[in-house]
Amino acid sequence: MEALQSFNVGTRVDWLFKEYESGEDVVVEEVTLKRLFWAFKPCIDGFDHCMPVIQIDGSHLYGPYPLVLLSAIAVDGFSHILPLAFTIVESENLSSWGWFVERLKSVVGRRHGICVISDRHAGIIAAMEQPGWCEPRNHHIFCIRHLATNFVTAFRRPGLKDRIVELDYQVQENKFDLLWEQLLIIEPRAAKWFEDKPLEKWSLVHDGGRRFGIITNNHAESWNNAIIEGRSLPISSLIREIFLKTVDYFDQRQVEIASQLSKGQLFTKHANKMLSRSINRGSGHSVQVFDRALLLFQVVTRKIGQKGGNSHTVRINESMCSCGKWQTYRIPCSHVIACCAYLNLGHEKFVGDCYKLENLANVYNGIFEPIPSKGDARWPRLVGFPKVTHDKEVPKKKGRGKSTRFKNAMDFQAPRGKN
Predict the structure, then answer these.
(1) For residue 1, how far is the Cα from the chain centroid?
(2) Would you say 42 and 361 are in contact if contact means Cβ atoms under 8 Å apart?
(3) Nearest-angstrom CA–CA distance, 173 and 157
(4) Alpha-carbon distance 126 to 94, whole Å?
(5) With 80 as the cut, is the pLDDT of residue 254 above it?
(6) d(CA 402, CA 310)
(7) 256 and 302 share one domain
(8) What is the pLDDT of residue 391?
(9) Are residues 134 and 53 in the same domain?
(10) Considering the domain boundaries, does residue 20 fall inside one?
(11) Most buried one in 55, 95, 236, 246, CB count within 10 A?
(12) What average pLDDT score do residues 402-406 get?
């Protein structure tokens, strides 16, 4: 860790040793590892240009020691992973999650309006109630797949999980209300179950656009799968694996951004795909101007068979469309595209900054420096740092840890695209 900080200046590393856990001022030559936190400097700086969304999750290590890796994963305008911060802890509990979240706050605290997505682990919920993370400065949202799985476990009726996921995806309140009423007809006990789960914690239409349409912890879980082999390694080797994986991610993104910029593109592929769909749909909409100064419009969608013919209100000056998609994803919907085309107004200016390639280049312009071999003359010398040992009270596992676990319904859920 000293070498990591020495060659990559600005990288954050925090230790917690068992001997210093009480806060007593003691000096010992040998300490017991309790927890370790780190965050790479280029990732800390890159987060300033990402969506203000962080997914946090824990995964077990399969090496000789039964420890847990807690990860914080940001999401860029490509809808790609930005590894942000990590902690190795003794287990997932109230104290360890609080320790991790407190340090995470210290590296991202200059931003406001951050939305943290997680499962409903009691330790995470308690940690997110700490000053600086709670409303209104920042927000905490539940992963809908975990929530839906918990709901199905409680009631064990076929089809309920899909209904909960569909309910959460809605970006229009009237559609949400209709689906909610249908759910209560099938399972009247649902109202009681959701009493202690505020709508803004899990419903897309009620969250104020805080999570950019992201409703699951899929990015964090994808990261855990990406480093699954490293989770069987000793701690120092695991950290090196995460370091090299992150370096590789930065290189891939730099190549991807340079390629798109060379073709004269303005936005990420993720944004271009959504824009293309909106442009195709908007070509058949009819537009009525209500106030040119306020840029207030009514848009009627193209009618195809039994579908279409719906009316939506667009307020461009307020970045609002009654369909809810513009506010949710920060990408103009088909109704906004139709209004822009009617006025010969470029819709590009209404795309969120996090999707602009020029901005995305700032996410990945940080430089990682290679770490030499331990025998290299440049390797830093530790002065006054105690010897770090494993906690003897935590039994060492025999043999190679198994990297399998009992799967639940979430492991077999196919990825679902946006509406």
Answers:
(1) 26
(2) no
(3) 26
(4) 7
(5) yes
(6) 55
(7) no
(8) 83
(9) yes
(10) yes
(11) 55
(12) 43
CA gap 216, 165 in Å, rounded: 10
Asked if 89 and 45 sit in the same domain, the reply is yes
* % of the chain beyond a pLDDT of 90: 76
Q: How many distinct structural domains can be found in the chain?
A: 3
Structural domain boundaries enclosing 320: 279-355
Q: Supply the angle between the helices 160-169 and 144-155 in degrees, to the nearest 10.
A: 150
- Same domain, yes or no: 105 and 2: yes
In a domain, 364, yes or no: no
What tokens does 315 get?
Answer: 């307020």
Instruction: Indicate if 92 and 20 belong to the same structural domain.
Output: yes
Nearest to 1 by CA among 229, 223, 240, 249: 240
265 burial type by CB count under 10 A (0-12 exposed, 13-18 middle, 19+ buried): middle
Say whether both 122 and 174 belong to one domain: no
Structure-token match 């590296």, residue found: 107
Q: Specify whether 137 is located in the same domain as 209.
A: no
Contact 228, 338 (CB under 8 A): no
pTM over 0.85: yes
Q: Which two tokens stand for residue 54?
A: 């962080």
Rounded (10°) angle between helices 173-186 and 160-169: 160
* Residue 115 belongs to a domain: yes
CATH, residue 1: 3.30.420.10
Helices of type H across 156-268 = 160-169, 173-186, 190-193, 218-226, 235-262
Q: Cα–Cα distance between 173 and 356 in angstroms, integer?
A: 29
Give the number of other CB atoms < 10 A from CB of residue 363. 26
**Which residues are within 8 A (CB) of 283 and not within 5 positions of it... i.e. 6 or more apart?**
338, 341
- b/e for 96-134, b at 16 or more Cβ within 10 A? bbbbbbebbbebbeeeeebbbbbbebebbbebbeeeebe
